[in-house]
Structures are given as C-alpha cells and as structure tokens.
Amino acid sequence: MTPILAVIFVAPLVIGITVLIYMFYYRRKINKRLAKGNISGKREGRPMMPPIVFILVTMICVSIVTTLLVIVFAIFVGKNIVSTGRSHGGFDGESLIHIRTISEDDMDDSFFEGYKTGDDIAGYEKFTETNGDITFYYYKVKDNMLGIMPRLIIATETSKDTADLEYGFHVYAREGKRKLDLGGGGKCYMYAIDCNNFEGTIKLEEFCFDEELLFEHLSWDETYESAQIKGTLELDMSYPEHGY
To answer: What is the C-alpha separation between 61 and 183, in angstroms, rounded?
Structure first.
C-alpha cells in the first residue's frame, strides 16, 4: 500500500477511535452528574462539547490533516519517481524491453565509471542527435557485446538553465500490437535499455518543468507539452537483414 492510500485509509479509523474515546468520557461525566443529582442544576467545571459538535469538529480537523499529508506525499513521490529495473509490456506479462535509469552515483565502481556525457563507450557505436532543447547521445552495442551489455544506452544534455526545474521523462516502446508507456521523474545520468529481441520503435521524451505543474496532476504527455525545456529521440530498433 502506498503512503497516500495508507493516510486515506487511516483517517476514518482515527476519527472512529477519537469519537469512541470522547463518548466514553462524555457518558462518564454525565453519569457522575446524574449520581450527584446535578443534571438540571448549576454545571460544575467546564461544560463538555455535545457529541455531534465534537464529531463534526474532529472530522474537519482530520480531513485537513489528511489533505495536507496527501499533498506532502504527492510532492515527495512526484520528485522521486525513478523507474528502475524491469518494465513489462505485451501479452501475458511477456517482457517487451527492460529499462534502467542510472544516476551519477550509480556509475561509481561500474563499467561506466569516469564517463562524461558525450564520451565514447567501449563496445558501443555512438550517435548524436539534437531535438528541441536536448542533445541526445545514444549508443548501440557492437556485435561482439550483444547479449552481454545493454543493447542501447542514452545520455542527454542541454545548454539551457535547468536550475529550480523538475526533471521528467517518458518512454514509449512499440512493436506491432505490443506497447509500453513508462513515465518517471528525477534527474538521471543515462538510460540503459535491454531489448535484444525487440525490433520495434523506442521514443524517449525528456523535459524540465516548473514545480507548480506537480500540483496540477497532469499526465506525462501534458507535462511534456507545458515544459520549458524538452526534446524527443525516436529510434527504429529493427535489425538489418545482414545483421546488427
């Protein structure tokens, strides 16, 4: 269960427990007054809030707290969504492609340690394409490393100022009727894509946008359209008849 759903489910429970506790003390105080024969006389001490008023006040307070917590969790999730590991599409759970986003820290003590955006990578053929505000460096694995290293690696850069902007990406993969749509947020250093048996098209959209868009609950497509910095890379991953 996600934190947001947990908060939503716990809220009614908190209201119920609070009301039960209040009713216990309310009845206890009423019974004491009855025992003293003071039910119609002058009240002693501070009067208790009628149950119906207490329930309404409790519901309002819990609703406000729940709403604030949901907003906080939504912002946190929006900033930290990073899609890693396997991503599935197609039929019967069959894997279409596997995508891993790699952060700069992930590259320490790895095959890619020391890599700077745009550098050559051993075992790969490098290509460069600029679209919109983004320059894409994509690397296709050479025949001798096919099946050993990821078939496709993509790194990006932009000359635009990305300070105070949020990062997002959207990956589309299509092969006949099989498809995969995958969106995520957070800055990543490169994308590694395993797709050795894949012969369709892959489209990557990367974009930077104002934090305010996180509150508008837009789709990744809508966020891309509203982004200040954006670019798209589309690749045909079909194998040539004479070999890769």
So the answer is: 35
Please, which residues have CB within 8 angstroms of residue 167's CB and are 6 or more apart in sequence?
185, 186, 187, 188, 206, 207, 208
The structure tokens listed for 188 are 């990543």
- Put residue 53 in one of left, alpha, beta given phi > 0 → left and psi -120 to 50 → alpha: alpha
Q: 174 has which bridge partners?
A: 179, 201
The strand pair at 190-194 and 97-102 is best described as: antiparallel
Tell me how far apart the alpha carbons of residues 175 and 90 are, in angstroms, rounded to a whole number.
Answer: 9
This prediction has a pTM of 0.60
State the sign of the Cα–Cα–Cα–Cα dihedral 18, 24, 25, 26: positive
* pLDDT band for position 37 (cuts 50, 70, 90): low
Task: Say if CB 98 and CB 86 are below 8 A apart.
Answer: yes
Q: Largest alpha-carbon pair distance within the chain?
A: 101
| Residue closest to 220 by CA, chosen among 179, 176, 172, 174 | 172
SS3 of 84, please? coil
Domain spanning 82-236 has what CATH number?
Answer: 2.60.40
Q: Which residues pair with 232 in a beta bridge?
A: 205
**Structure tokens given for 219:** 């789709």
Tens-place pLDDT, residues 59-101: 777 778 777 777 766 665 544 444 433 333 433 345 678 888 8
For 112, phi then psi, to 5°, come to -95, 10
- Domains of the chain, by residue range, sit at 3-79, 82-236
